[in-house]
Design goal:
One of its GO terms (cellular component) is plasma membrane. Belongs to the membrane-bound acyltransferase family. One of its GO terms (molecular function) is acyltransferase activity. It comes from Chryseobacterium defluvii. There is one protein chain. The chain has helices spanning 6-21, 26-45, 49-68, 72-108, 126-141, 151-159, 161-164, 172-178, 187-220, 227-258, 276-282, 285-302, 307-326, 330-341, 344-348, 366-382, 384-387, 391-401, 416-431, 448-465. It is an all-alpha fold. The protein folds into two domains: 6-184, no CATH class; 188-274 and 356-476, no CATH class. Helix 9 runs antiparallel to helix 10. The protein is globular. The relative contact order is 0.10.
Length: 477
């Protein structure tokens, strides 16, 4: 049941009406939310619904034990909880990866006996809800969660349907505070939510899905293309990935707002980042902030005696985790490693924590005109490690770009209307880049006809360029 499907619209309308008409208090509303979330998850992966429910119950029990324990037993319960979460992640997501690479190692020593791979199904959303569970246990251990929620509220936090497939990875305290009290219908919040959903639909259906009609066949025939065509393909994929993932996040945030719940913002216009550190503060914010708090910060403290070298080690481990989180493939791991390496010049110059100055003007400053294109190109090249099927394709793709054929005219067609749509999206996002989402306050000071005309144009474009319900790229993680 995709967020951009008619079946989801029917599901949500029923849930929405029941939620507000029959939800007399917060407990009843949360019961409806939990039932709805489990129905939604079952529509994707019914065979793993029991795993989600059991994991929720076990981590809730361990969270209670951590809260009541003292001294070393508190640490022991935390380690048990984290171990159980990681072991299921390692089994479902990484087991065959380790077996394959172990077999390759045996081959190097001339040993022909091979361990058999298992036919393991992948529980959808496991990377997202596992990090929610771990964050919850760590927050209890660090006294950031002052009181243990009810099992009902904790279950809603883990399974909340707009977020379980592709995030954001919310923190326990703000989310649980959101659902403690009854949510009353708010016309202001309802309008805000609908606008954010509309913008998310535009980015997903009009931009991302239509770029996919170019990039998918391009990647299939990449070995026949010249360097300029390959670079344009990588650039288009970067925009596609952003539009797809941030489009999902906008829809998830908008749906949550309709239910009176605020979830974490996941993107802050990363296509306009001015350096590597600025980009990672803007891209997949819920994951990067989670890793900053629970991985990078403890490691940087541990390695602090090594000065800049310690900071580099902490960054490299942090981004190695980023790579592994995305998948059990070497190209994802190298994506993480290269991401960490890209920080080294900033660390060496002592500029990693220096915040970039961004203007709110329509006309970009000289610094922005210089920094944004350079950063965009760097991450366009990095994203090649994200979309390739394996490292062999990555090497060949880079060889193709960094060849003399880069200076030839591209030998792959790109539809002009898609280019115009991309430019239009980027203009709207640039104008509204100081807001939570681009069209949040766009044209609010203009007359009603102009404002509603703008919304109707977006709706028209959604229906005009709608191809078919397509999955979200990050649902595979």
């Amino acid at each position: 049941m995709l967020l951009n499907s008619y079946s989801f619209i029917a599901f949500f309308i029923i849930l929405f009406l029941v939620y507000y008409l029959l939800g007399k208090n917060s407990k009843i509303q949360n019961v409806f939310l939990l039932i709805g979330s489990y129905v939604f998850y079952a529509s994707w992966s019914w065979e793993f619904l029991s795993l989600l429910i059991i994991s929720t119950g076990v981590t809730y029990f361990i969270g209670n034990k951590i809260k009541s324990a003292e001294g070393k037993s508190k640490v022991h319960w935390l380690r048990l909880g984290v171990f159980l979460i990681l072991i299921q992640l390692l089994y479902f997501k990484y087991f065959n990866f380790f077996i394959e690479n172990f077999n390759e190692l045996l081959n190097l020593f001339g040993i022909r006996d091979r361990m058999k791979l298992l036919n393991i199904l992948f529980p959808i959303g496991i990377s997202f809800y596992s990090f929610r569970m771990m964050g919850y246990l760590l927050d209890i251990r660090n006294n950031k969660l002052k009181e243990i929620p009810s099992l009902l509220n904790y279950s809603v936090f883990i399974a909340f349907f707009p977020c379980i497939i592709a995030g954001p990875i919310d923190r326990a305290t703000p989310f649980l505070n959101n659902i403690k009290d009854k949510r009353d219908f708010s016309s202001t919040q309802f309008t805000d939510g609908l606008k954010q959903i509309l913008w998310g639909l535009f980015k997903k259906l009009v931009i991302a899905d239509n770029i996919a009609t170019i990039t998918s066949p391009l990647f299939e025939s990449y070995h026949t293309l010249n360097g300029s065509a390959l670079f344009i393909g990588a650039m288009l994929y970067f925009i596609q990935l952003y539009s797809d993932f941030s489009g999902y996040t906008d829809m998830a945030m908008g749906i949550a707002k309709l239910l009176g719940i605020k979830i974490q913002q996941n993107f802050n216009y990363p296509l306009f980042a001015q350096n590597v550190a600025d980009y990672w503060r803007r891209w997949h914010i819920s994951l990067t902030s989670w890793l900053t708090e629970y991985v990078f910060t403890p490691l940087s403290i541990t390695f602090r005696d090594y000065d800049k070298y310690g900071l580099i080690m902490a960054i490299m481990v942090n981004f190695l985790v980023v790579g592994f989180w995305h998948g059990a493939e070497w190209h994802y791991i190298f994506h993480g490693i290269v991401s960490g390496i890209m920080f080294i010049p900033l660390i060496w110059k002592g500029k990693m924590n220096k915040k970039v100055k961004s203007s709110n003007n329509i006309i970009p400053t000289k610094e922005e005109l210089k920094n944004i294109p350079v950063t965009f190109v760097l991450f366009t090249l990095l994203m090649i490690l994200f979309f390739v099927k394996d490292m062999e394709m990555a090497v060949n793709y880079y060889k193709g770009i960094f060849s003399l054929s880069f200076f030839q005219l591209p030998n792959y067609p790109v539809q002009k209307e898609i280019v115009l749509l991309i430019i239009s999206m980027l203009i709207v996002e640039w104008i509204g880049r100081d807001k939570e989402y681009a069209i949040k306050e766009m044209l609010v000071k203009q007359n009603v006809a102009l404002r509603w005309g703008f919304y109707y144009v977006l709706v028209f474009l959604v229906f005009l360029f709608y191809i078919a319900p397509k999955g979200f790229i990050y649902a595979q993680f």
